[in-house]
Amino acid sequence: MKSVTLPVVQPPIYGYQFFAFPLCIVLQDKRSLPWLYSNFIQVCFDKRPDPPVPFTFYIHDYTLNPWLHVEQLQRGTMGIVNRNIVDFVRDCLLEGYYVYLNVDEFYIPERAVYQKSHFSHDVLVHGVDLQNETFQLLGFTDKQMLATTSASFQDFALAYDSIAQIDHQAVCNRIYLYKVKDAGAYEFDLALVQETLEEYLKSSNTSRRFRMVANPWDHCAYGLDTYPCLQDYYERLLAGKASLDVRHVHSLWEHKNLMVARIKYMEEHTDYLTSPNQLRAAYGEIERKARNTRNLMLKFYMQQEEATLHKIMRYLDELAEAEALAIEEFLSVLKRHQPQLL
Amino acid sequence: MITKNEIEEKLVHIYMSQMQELQVGPEQVQQSGIDFSSQHIRLQDVGINSLGFIRLVVAIENEFGFQFDDDMLNVELFETIQQLIAYIEGKVSQ
Question: Which domain of life does the UniProt lineage start with (chain B) (predicted)?
Answer without folding.
Answer: Bacteria
